[in-house]
Design goal:
Elements: H1 15-19, H2 24-33, H3 48-55, H4 78-84, H5 104-139, H6 144-147, H7 152-180, H8 182-199, H9 206-220, H10 223-232, H11 240-265, H12 276-295, H13 318-331, H14 346-353, H15 359-367, H16 373-377, H17 379-385, H18 390-396, H19 398-418, H20 422-440, H21 448-458, H22 465-476, H23 479-500, H24 513-550, H25 554-563
Helix pairs in contact: 5-8, 5-10, 5-11, 5-12, 7-8, 7-9, 7-23, 8-9, 8-10, 8-12, 10-23, 11-18, 11-19, 11-22, 14-23, 15-23, 15-24, 20-21, 20-24, 22-23
GO molecular function, one term: transmembrane transporter activity
Biased composition (Basic and acidic residues): 26-35
Subcellular location: Membrane
């Protein structure tokens, strides 16, 4: 945040053009309340309005669509505004108006447009990532390992190499993205990994398999934090977690579509003397290459930079740009800290790495996914070993993907409604624990359908990763920190996947009782110690700051804000979400 005082507004501001798009009723309401803070909204409506919509229920407490929906902000206090004003080189500064007011109708229409224009293509791009990093599981149903004369241990090693390369690329990718802009770097990544995916058509053994997995992981690393940073330019902190849930829901939709694609493509075994899995890599890599090329034209740098030679009218009107920028900065002034083409300095990078208040979330990133990853990775292999054929196996993976779509969306709604992160995120492990115990207790030769039922319900767990990504983003407190910390969090998630890839071992097959015992222990640790401990830490941290901040006089607070060297979540006026 800049300490530069807000510039004087010109006499002929955009106020007239902003009001021109309103209905007569909205005009009169906003004209009466343009510079007043009395009618501002304290918080956003509950996200359960989505659930009411899905269920077809009509709410009795809906706000007047023509009422002012602008949320209260530090920019409403002239004494505070100058301490939170965006930096002079912030790319959207020309559209930021702290006196602007807008209605629920306008904001709802704008957010819907952003969802269709920005969020939809982000989900498609994310689906492309998951199509190419998930097709190895489907290739396993078509004798992939025997064709290359490899074992399940080689398969585990390939997954570990992929994750290690993915992890190693996270931070470098973020640094490149912050310099070039995610709108440029993301499609470059997509095209690069699509070519590597297609090259897997020519695999001839263990060495080429491991090389391709490493290169593929390095090309894909950093993509998720890059995309999350990009979405944060358009959404408020309360809107982002629900969109991230949709983001990961698209992953499961992709899993379903990928199963149907595999069902058809794997039948090409024998064409030109090639195995079906080779055609699978070639076809799916070609699909994502097309999406990657299209992404160059579908990702504008920011809400005020949608006009270009191939999109001369842009996506938003001047009024919509003012609302888009002002509502995001009113919600989180730190988003005006940096330009979207501004590289991170070594000092900012080091400060973000040393932000120990986010380390508890990194530990969660390391631990939370371990109990579910091995059963998910080995589902297709286990089903084949139990007697299901290639095509049955691919179709049997669909129900758990559908189940996760439902539970993930519900858990995100619950999190935003009860304003809790730690205990709601813990529900993923609470869900998994009894089913892991049941899998551990199965006999040596289980009934195939009993195993399938347990595995399917287990893998329908409420995936809380989107909540935790939003949690980490919210607690970062600045653009520079958010950029680095998103990568660090995801690096720990990838480290978790490396650990998970080595829990089920060949000497423990086919029931993996030793591996499941480890999973049960990790799951219990997460539920009993990890999540409650992280919540307790953040509650203690907030209480400590409240004690200091509330004891200060208004003059002392103003003096602190004007002289402090603290940045982001180090400031005394910052509170951690938990």
């Amino acid at each position: 945040m800049s300490s530069v005082s807000p510039p004087e507004k010109p006499a002929a501001s955009g106020r007239d053009s902003k009001a021109s798009s309103l209905s007569d009723i909205s005009k009169s309401k906003l004209e009466d309340k343009t510079s007043s803070v009395e009618n501002l909204v304290d918080e956003e409506p509950t996200p359960f309005r989505w659930l009411d919509y899905l269920l077809g229920r009509k709410r009795t407490n809906q706000p007047d669509l023509d009422a002012v929906s602008t949320r209260r902000s530090v920019f409403d206090d002239p004494a505070l505004a100058k301490h939170y004003w965006p930096n002079p080189d912030y790319e959207n500064l020309h559209r930021f108006d702290p006196d602007a007011r807008w209605t629920y109708r306008e904001e709802k229409a704008l957010v819907r447009k952003i969802d269709w224009r920005v969020m939809l293509w982000a989900a498609i791009s994310f689906s492309a990532l998951n199509l190419d990093r998930g097709n190895l599981t489907q290739a396993n149903t078509d004798n992939f390992l025997p064709d290359l004369k490899m074992t399940t241990n080689d398969y585990n090693l390939g997954n570990s190499v992929f994750r290690l390369a993915f992890l190693s690329a996270e931070l470098p990718s973020q640094l490149v993205s912050k310099r070039l802009g995610p709108d440029v770097w993301i499609p470059i990544q997509m095209c690069a990994w699509s070519i590597v995916t297609m090259a897997q058509f020519f695999l001839n053994g263990r060495t080429t398999f491991l090389v391709c997995r490493g290169v593929l992981g390095f090309m894909q690393g950093g993509f998720i934090p890059d995309l999350i940073l990009y979405l944060s330019y358009f959404y408020t902190k309360n809107e982002l977690p629900l969109r991230l849930s949709l983001f990961w829901i698209s992953m499961n939709v992709c899993t379903i579509l990928g199963s149907f694609i595999a069902f058809g493509v794997l039948r090409m075994r024998g064409i030109l003397g090639r195995a079906g899995w080779r055609w699978l890599f070639l076809v799916e890599g070609g699909i994502t290459l097309i999406v990657g090329i299209a992404t160059f034209f579908m990702m504008p740098p920011s809400p005020t930079q949608t006009k270009t030679w191939f999109r001369p009218k842009g996506w938003f009107t001047e009024r919509e740009e003012i609302i888009a920028v002002s509502r995001v900065l009113r919600d989180d002034p730190t988003k005006g800290d940096m330009h979207n083409r501004q590289a991170l300095t070594p000092r900012k990078l080091w400060r973000a790495l040393c932000d120990y208040d986010l380390w508890p979330l990194y530990i969660i990133g390391l631990m939370f996914g371990i109990p579910t990853s091995p059963p998910a990775q080995y589902l297709t292999l286990s089903l084949r070993n139990l007697g299901f054929n290639t095509f049955e196996t691919n179709l049997l993976t669909i129900p758990s993907a559908v189940g996760t779509i439902i539970t993930m969306w519900v858990i995100a709604l619950v999190s935003e409604t009860v304003h809790d992160r730690a205990y709601v995120s813990m529900l993923e492990d609470v869900w998994c624990l009894p089913f892991l115990i049941a899998l551990r207790a199965l006999p040596d030769k289980p009934d195939p359908w009993v195993f399938y039922a347990l595995a399917t319900v287990l893998l329908s767990y409420p995936y809380t990763h989107p909540i935790q990504v939003g949690w980490c983003s919210r607690n970062a407190g600045s653009v520079a920190s958010r950029t680095v910390n998103a990568s660090l969090y995801n690096m720990f998630v990838q480290a978790s996947a490396i650990i998970s890839s080595n829990i089920y071992r060949k000497d423990d097959a086919p029931n993996y009782r030793r591996g499941n015992s480890w999973l049960i222990g990790v799951c219990a640790f997460n539920c009993i110690i990890l999540y409650p401990g992280v919540k307790a830490y953040y509650k203690w941290k907030n209480a400590s700051r409240d004690k200091i901040w509330n004891a200060m006089s208004p003059e002392e607070k103003a003096e602190y804000l004007s002289t402090t060297k603290d940045k982001g979540n180090r400031r005394l006026d910052f509170r951690f979400a938990h």
